[in-house]
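$ run holo --ligand "magnesium ion" --emit tokens
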Amino acid sequence: MFDAKTGMLLWSMETLTLSAVLAVLWLHNTSKRHHLCFSMGFALVGLGAILVGLRGLIPDFISIQVANISALMGFSFWIMGLLMLESRKVEGWVAIPPLVWIAFMFLPAVRDNIGARVILHHVCAGIGYFMLAGVLMTSREYISKTRKVLAGALVVQAFAGAAAACIVVPYTMASGRIVPLTLPTAVVGALGFTILMMISVKMFMEDSERRLHKLTITDHLTGTLNRRGLIQTFDALKSRLAGTSKHIGFILFDVDHFKKINDEYGHQCGDDVLIRFCAQASVIADGQGAIIRMGGEEFGCLVETDDPSKVAILAEAIRIQFSRMEVVADGKQFSPTVSAGVFCQIAAEAELDTMLTMSDRALYGAKKEGRNRTVVREGSINIVVPATDRDEDPCDNNADRQVAALTRIAHIAKR
Ligand code: GH3
Ligand code: MG
Ligand code: MG
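-- output --
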């Protein structure tokens, strides 16, 4: 029959095996310190179980105090591991589960009563499970369904363990057993733990797949989407907007005289300009569109809109804001500029190839117009957007025509 010692031994085998597997993972790549934390967590829980199992063969202080504190420190290491995995700050509160235990040890009524100690241990472990659930749900990571299921299972485990102990311990104490550990508490602990491990593995695998996928669609220098990301975002946008009267707009940006910036101030300075353009453009486009690095110093902005003229306005906002940026390099200050080409299509008819070709034609027009300009492609004509940040003759026949054309685009959108 299942006795406390056998149960503890089996439990420690389970946790020590997991600890060894995680230690091997850590040795494979020692920069992944969360693996070491998880490994330490399982090792401490395993050690705690062995020491409890050795009750009577080793000094009581070790089989009671060292064992319980070790097992509860396991939770602290698991919480630390989760925080590290998500690059979050590790603070002193991770030590709460063992600290609660230590605090109660100053109360002789608890310290000297084995039943009270077993219940206290389960309550502290419950706090640990609860904290793990909290860390999972307050993550900046995408809160997936599996993550929610795991957090829920941890909360169930937190209450189930403590509740089982509270029910079983007084009953077994009355029966005169020395160590009040029975099959129900062991089963709740071990079975729950195994289920938790299975959900955790699923969540970690899903999260790492998601991270890898994000890497494949992200530009490494600027952190924006890359071309592959554009294709995926465009396809998703198109199917989401199918059947609506919405438009998809694309703005193609190209930094002006970028080669000169590289030549005069160095490649690193050029890189900084690209990073700053993306950071600035992402803030301006936030909620309206996504920024994409097309390659080199060329960027895209994919926009969903019900009014195509808003895309030209967005392009102008990004262009003007960028022209106000001050870059200091080699003790000299300069303000880079960008040209923009805009093209819009009704979502149902939108084709990425067409959008890229047309916005490129508009961009070519913007370069031809002297750069630091926005040009909209409408059918087979380029419309130069009248710049509000420079003196342009309002009586200029050309400017009038452009305003009329922009109004026409807005009108088409309203139909
Ligand atoms: P234009 O106004 O006509 O666009 O002129 P430009 O100098 O910007 O265009 P050009 O195509 O002649 O030069 C682009 C330069 O961008 C050439 C290339 O060395 C540089 N470049 C491409 N990718 C990167 C990058 O990742 N970092 C840096 N610093 N430079 C890059
Ligand atoms: Mg350029
Ligand atoms: Mg270029």
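-- notes --
The CA atoms of residues 105 and 185 lie 22 Å apart.
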